[in-house]
Amino acid sequence: MSAGDRDQRTTGKASRLRRFAQWFAPRYMDADLRTLGLWRIVIGTFLCIDGLRHALEARFYYSNEGLFQNHWLLFSPTADFNVSLFTAFSTPTAVRIAFACAILCFFCFAIGFKTRAFNLLSLIWYVSIDQRLLLRENGGYIVVVLLTFWTLFLPMGERFSVDGWRRAWRATRGAKPEAAAEHRRAWPRELHRSLASAIVVINFAVVYLFNVVNKFGSTWMKGHTVHYVLHIDRMVTPLAVWSRQLLPFWITMAITWTVLVVEAVIMLSILWPENRRYTRPLAILLLVPLHGSFGTMMRLGPFSWAMITFSVALLCPVHWASLGRVFRRRVDVAALRYRGPFGAQAARVLALLDHHDRLQLSEGEDDGPPLELERDGTRHDGRAAWWAALAATPAGRFAILPRLLSLGLLDAVVAFAFSRPEAWARFFGWGMPQRSMVALPSFEPNWLSRRGRQLRELVLVLLILGETSQLINENKAFPKPMKHKQPHALRAAIGYPRLFQGWGMFAPNPIRVDGRVGIDAITIDGRHIDPLRIIGGLSPEPDLDISDDEGSGYNQIHQDYQNRIRLNQNEHHRTALRRLLAAWHERTGNPADEIVQYDVFWVHDRNPPPGLTEPFDPQTRCLLSWRKPGVRKVAGQPLPPHCRPEREKDDDKKKKKKDPADDLPKPIGDIVRWWRGD
Amino acid sequence: MDLIKRAYLRIDPRSLGLFRILFGTVLIADLFDRWAWAADFYSNEGVLPNHNHLFILKDQAEVWSVFHSFSSEGEAHAAFLITLFFYACFTVGWYTRTFQAASLVALIGLCGRNVLTHSSGDSVAIALLAVTLFLPLGMRVSIDALRRSLREVDEKGPAELNDRSRPKTPEPAPSLAPLLVLGLLAVIHYGAASSENGETWKSGEAMYYALHVDRWTSGLGVALRDAGLSGILTPLVRYAPMLVVPLALVPVARPITRGLAILLMLVHGLTLGLLFTLGLYAWSLMAAAALLIPEEVWARRYGEPRRPIDVFYDGDCGVCLWSARLAKRLDWAGDITFHVNDPEELATYRTFDGDVEKAAKVADETMVVFDGDDVFTEHRAVQQVGRRAALIGPLFGILSWPGVWSLALFAYKRFSARRRDVSVALGLGACGIPIPKDDADEAASDEETPADVWGRRLGGLICTAGAALVVCVALAQTESRNPDTALKTGLSSNAKLVSLANYARVLGDWGVFAPDPPKENGALVVDATTNNDWNVDPITGWPPDLTLESPARARKGAMWMAYQANIADPDNASFRKEFRRYLTRGGHILDRKERDQGVKQLEVYWAKVPIPPPGEQRGEVELVKIFSQRGSLGGPKRRF
Lengths: 678, 640
Fold this sequence. Notes:
The complex is a heterodimer.
Chain A: H1 3-29, E1 30-31, H2 33-55, H3 58-62, H4 70-75, H5 92-111, H6 115-132, H7 139-150, H8 162-171, H9 177-185, E2 192-193, H10 195-213, H11 218-222, H12 225-230, H13 238-246, H14 249-271, H15 276-297, H16 303-311, H17 317-330, E3 334-338, H18 340-353, E4 359-363, E5 371-375, E6 378-381, H19 382-391, H20 400-405, H21 409-419, H22 421-428, H23 447-474, H24 488-495, E7 513-523, E8 528-529, H25 531-535, H26 556-565, H27 574-582, H28 584-588, E9 595-606, E10 616-627, E11 633-634, E12 637-638, H29 666-676
Parallel strand pairs in A: 3-4
Antiparallel strand pairs in A: 1-2, 3-5, 5-6, 7-8, 7-9, 9-10, 11-12
Helix pairs in contact in A: 2-5, 2-16, 5-6, 6-7, 7-16, 9-18, 10-14, 14-15, 15-16, 18-22
Chain B: H1 2-8, H2 13-35, H3 38-41, H4 50-57, H5 73-92, H6 96-112, H7 120-131, H8 143-152, H9 158-161, H10 177-195, H11 199-203, H12 206-211, H13 219-224, H14 230-249, H15 254-275, H16 280-288, H17 295-302, E1 309-313, H18 318-330, E2 336-340, H19 343-348, H20 357-361, E3 368-371, E4 374-377, H21 378-387, H22 404-417, H23 419-425, H24 439-446, H25 450-481, H26 495-503, E5 520-530, E6 535-536, H27 551-554, H28 558-567, H29 576-584, E7 599-610, E8 622-630
Parallel strand pairs in B: 1-2
Antiparallel strand pairs in B: 1-3, 3-4, 5-6, 5-7, 7-8
């Protein structure tokens, strides 16, 4: 091959690469700033709610009065790279203060105040919440961490944020409302182009892709999954219990296959490069009911809601344009006249919110109220004009929420402000604005910011490589030859912030064994209690019969903790449970609650086979047993004999696990085995 | 009223800025001191793993440290790096208050990670950092102030650059915080004086005994300890700080009274800082002396030009204009007059001696400085401008050093040739069109509105409350820990205040030699034998000094000093298990991966010898065995 041919080939490759980049970038790498703003609000709100959910369990799961002391976690970490700020907090009060700090950071991120800084702090705090109690971690926590991590590389605070508002407010200081409106029209509307946007979309699709391909077990193929899942009492909510009693078996089969198809369609809709105007809403329309039903029927923690949160990132500019058209059709243009310094400031606020130019601003010439709105011959004055004008702005459509939440206080404040406009203008030193021209925002990047962007993209490329490696190693669908040893630095970079990529809920098959921890403890005054049920907000009497359960009633943190603490590998973590039971009366503050004996069991049974509704093979396995030394009788009754703690046999891997591929039709099973490299 | 306000309710923002820089530097130096021992004191490889510390404290000791979250040596280094970032940002005044709060959290964490390493300096530094959180430390001499000033006044040419009417800086919130800072200094100094009340202090021998305790005496202290200075140093260390606050409270002749107070603080601090290794104690108090500099001193130093110069810069170069704007802000005295280096203007410029030739010769230069009859170009011109910078001016003398000036000249020439490209690349083009501003609007923005006044009042109230809380916490703890103290306020009965002080590691141990310095010289000596029969002390790397003949070898800084004394105390026996494990793993010196360096057996002693009265011979060394160990206890749980 001549040098010329080689050059031509190289040039041809470069040209193909360029063409691919030109095709790829507008489809996957562009993010609308409004989408990012809305996404930030949704993520931040979600983080606040999830933070509160965990804060409610602060005492028994995060402090040293509970089931997992900080010194124990530090002595015996539950995973590699296990660092959590929460391990620095010992007492319930200190832990609650830490949760307050975390939720404050989440809130500041939600409202877009110092967005980038609070995004980073939110990530640190959420990872800390997760790392403090890995015994209850599931894929949902990983999704939330990934959400918070990828957003670090995106301009989340440009729109719908306090930061953006402060920038605009400062820039239009002393300006007439008309000039403020001009400034607002020049706000960034262009798309943000970055690999981060592509990663978000692809990572989202990857979750569905592997949720589909990892589900190759016979239960899925035969359509029995939903039936089994609905009978996992540990996880189900009362709605699921009601559904399983109501739904005939053939419907659950149909739902099983539908779930597979829907997940596949969602994945394709997310990634489909053309007609995104239709494919992306289709994905949202499918995933919201899918995850909504998961979330309301199962106690899966943050997974379902995090996936719904993720979906906001799918909105494209075309959708915003459509929404804008609808908004403009519904809201008529109105004339807004302002008078005096107070009216001018109120009009400036409205001018900055009026993204669809529904307000025609002008200065009132005669004496009159500070604001006056006229639309279709109807006139509003003062605060009525304010609320009417606010309703003509996109953000104002949501003003009803704070008005309702403040129980009328907000209305009272506005009424008070409009009752004394001159006094307020004097108080804040507002004069009549004179500037009819303000500097328009400039977004021309200089050399430094261009280099900064390139550095960011380079970091993202490295992250893509790392996450791809993780994806291959974690997912069963990749054949064994592709699995590889990761360098320590990569494992640390993924492990500390928990940026894992293993996807496959109920894959390859759902679990068919149901269980929970049950405690039979006897207090010094002879009562039988179950402290775990008390902590979980259930009735205090022990319940060691699982066969009549209709949902265990425990929330996700409790049920996942119980499911993991039973495992042989977590045997040593039962020390904290032992301590909690021994000091139970100190926790309750009632000396009569002192426990003199307890037996802790893993009570479990097998889910009913397809077509049946009753579980079978109920069993109990003793995990812990203790009698207070010197105590032989309680309330005149002798203490029952010890139960003998046993290890779970299946869990010791002494028995070879059954290969799920064996359940498949032989040709398909052979293909699966070949793909796995067996 | 004005006099009282100026004397008690106001600290000059420049004094606050100087304090911030000095105190930040002290914190950074302390951080590096601790960093050297990160593996030994801040990781699970060291003397006290985090889980063991938390377990021993059993949630009763009211200790909190963010450093408990980090286990491995690598994690500890990462935590130190983040702390350095906080300290550096605080020192340069970038988001000052935010990073001061972050620095406070980090400092409390550093001090609380191992309770046995606590020293009086930790309490002093934390209390000072906490109380000054309520003062506007970033108002002057900070990146924040510079950014604010650059944003508010956008000079476009020499006329605006030479307009030295300062843009209005926001007045600090009227609060009692400045007075409360003096209150805290009083608590520290009187707390120290009231606790240091033993016989040796009264007889004037305290410093003699203190200087003979080898574990905390510096090399200079050792050299001077037999020079008969105790009679002077003892009253100086005891009484000098007691005069500081009364002198600072004198409302008149402040340059003199405050100057005297500063001098006493410096003498006291230098005495303790140079003769002993007490950690943060002396240096923190010396940095606090900057808070006492009255505004009259600043006005006298920078009130009027002293060595005026004329600076010609390239008006078409954005970086040059930006540099001129920066120089204007650093030139507090107003020494610099700016000109654009228009060749015509340069050609007609006359130096002091009336010579027009000198200026004509340098008409093509990017930057020219005329200082009287002298003409400077290139990097020397930069140096001349830099020397006019307040506080940091002397640093520009470095540009004259051999080697440095060649580098500076090279850099200058490289930049000068490409200055316009660089300006464009950095987005600093000088041809911006100024935004039209309305006069009425400008005038209005200068006036203080009622909202501003109320905002400031509210801010002042918050600052007063915050600073008062810090002082109350310090007082409560002083009384709680030293029931005999003269500072009796009854605050120690408030358990929440004492609890807060405990969590913040403000332990009220203000007196470093209280009630008397020890009359015996003691040191922890480890007598270890390795597998290859090497007899070594695994902490010092020298043969065990059982006779205390070579105390200099055992000196490892303030943390080791405190730790060794505390671990020898039988009350801290619960901490010894992990110390024993640390030593059997090789301590600081031995490499446990080397089989030969494995510890075969060890014995740990507290070696003590009475300090002989002046002129007498030293007695026999007594060895108190703390523990012994044969073979290794094994490592901690490995995480990866």
